[in-house]
Amino acid sequence: TVLGLLPMALGLGEGAELRAPLAVTVIGGLTVATVLTLVVIPVVYSVLDRKRLPADRTVVAAQSRLKRPGSVPAGVGEATS
Questions:
Q1: Is 80 exposed, middle or buried (0-12, 13-18, 19+ CB in 10 A)?
Q2: Cβ(23)–Cβ(8) under 8 Å?
């Protein structure tokens, strides 16, 4: 899309002075959205994930052990009469 709008942004052809600002705006918006999606958001996520408290990591590790196939917490699945 950016490459397709490039001729319009450069002002080639008749009436280009009216369409060029729109093309420049769309190119800028697409570029900023792409950088945010592919670079900024993943970096922010990884930074915030590293700041997780040690207690939170212990809870997550314990929960993942409980979800393993074949591991059942004590008292679960026992027959009661």
A1: exposed
A2: yes
Instruction: Tell whether pTM > 0.90.
Output: no
Alpha-carbon distance of 29 to 27, in angstroms, equals 6
Phi/psi at 7 (5° precision): -60, -40
Q: Give pLDDT, residue 9.
A: 92
Assigned token pair, 50? 């590293």
Asked if pLDDT for residue 64 goes beyond 60, the answer is yes
- Which of these, 43, 55, 6, 48, lies nearest to 27 by C-alpha position? 6
- Give me the sign of the Cα torsion angle 17, 19, 25, 30: negative
Tell me how far apart the alpha carbons of residues 65 and 73 are, in angstroms, rounded to a whole number.
10
Q: How far apart (Å, rounded) are the C-alpha atoms in residues 52 and 4?
A: 44
Q: Can you tell me the distance from the alpha carbon of 52 to that of 54, in angstroms, rounded to the nearest whole number?
A: 7
